[in-house]
Amino acid sequence: xxxxxxxxxxxxxxxxxxxxxxxxxxxxxxxxxxxxxxxxxxxxxxxxxxxxxxxxxxxxxxxxxxxxxxxxxxxxxxxxxxxxxxxxxxxxxxxxxxxxxxxxxxxxxxxxxxxxxxxxxxxxxxxxxxxxxxxxxxxxxxxxxxxxxxxxxxxxxxxxxxxxxxxxxxxxxxxxxxxxxxxxxxxxxxxxxxxxxxxxxxxxxxxxxxxxxxxxxxxxxxxxxxxxxxxxxxxxxxxxxxxxxxxxxxxxxxxxxxxxxxxxxxxxxxxxxxxxxxxxxxxxxxxxxxxxxxxxxxxxxxxxxxxxxxxxxxxxxxxxxxxxxxxxxxxxxxxxxxxxxxxxxxxxxxxxxxxxxxxxx
Length: 361
Known about the structure:
Helices cover 61% and strands 0% of the residues.
């Protein structure tokens, strides 16, 4: 009996082995994020570069320190801590205090990752959990440290006020990101007076082009949908991620927002789903964080449920919540349901058949 207790437990066959390694996957993800990071430095200046460096170095140092204290092997060279720090930097405003970002990185790798057992055992996405902590602890720094809009931006004075907003309204709108512009603009136009001009601005070719290319305000890594798509394409080609979660996530947001704005009889309602998909952190979250293999389901059916759930929650927060963005919270909430999703979408054991009606298996 004693020998039996020491036997290894092997999972059900078939057993598949991949040629990928953790370092190769992690450094590929970092390379895929590089174009968006480089553009952020170009757009926001050296402040964004320093913020990224501080976040990455803090994550690496924090993981090495806690692993030494816990007497675990130091694994910072596998790139997972660096990717966590990079993703956190991409989820904060470009003028956020460096000390705050360092605290977030320490929290991500020490509390959310290592205290749960290390890579592969964390329940929540470390970077998003750290972002939630920073949002709860220092909301002013997380919602007000935006970069000044550059000339040619849709919210710059020479372009934005061509839509005829009052001085009070325009001053408020130019302090917003595109999603904040939508949320705050709806509150500023009392009785719906002038709201049509706001929707015209949001769905104008100039705004949609700026959202796609990246000349808009926002957190460090969400501004250029084009470069995020380019990085995601690398991950698809390397088969590091699949299309299931991003497609179900983004598709759900597009569907819900289309129905909502159609029901609200919003002018150009058919373009509002495109605005929502290109705005905020949807692409960053859908392609680079919701696809995290540790905190997302393993089966295709489970991935669809997970992506749809993320899309529903993000849409509800954006459309009816007090906060303009809901991507990070939607992913974190769905992370908590992953064990349950995996349990009820577990594929049939290889070599068995379904129980016949009224009979035995």
